[in-house]
Amino acid sequence: MTKKNMEMMVGLFVVLGIAALVFIALKAANLGSFGDNGGYLLQARFDNIGSLKARAPVRSAGVTVGRVKSIRLDPKTYQGLVTMEIQHGVEFPRDSSAKILTAGLLGDQYVGLEAGGDEKNLAPNDTVTQTQSAVVLENLISQFLFNKAADAGTTAAPAPVQQPAPAGAKK
Fold it and tell me: What are the pLDDT digits (tens) for 58-74?
């Protein structure tokens, strides 16, 4: 092999390595696709979105069917308004529900869509009305501790109360 051929092979190897690193970085950041997927938009309102982020997956039965496009605060209801882009060909009945779920114990959050039983489907730009907000771990812990403290306060035997003696009674 000549020196020129060896340099070409090394250069090709370096370019392939850089391309692989860029690919892995884009996949890790959920930016795997550059173009518009051409899906349709759905919206959902949540009281608490937890740590849900734009580009988070939208899943149904464990299958990714879309992505969260944007998250903003509705100035009228003070709820989180989540806009989701759903792939073409995937349709959900009108009475479907949306939940903010966590992948694993402390993993990333995503939107889970559960199909309902209505005959009519959600149209583009419709709003999913049945929603369940994110479960915040800190709220669960404080509820647990508060309930334990309340239970401890009610299980202790109350101290006997002495009634005052009537005015004419002997001591």
Answer: 999 999 999 999 999 99
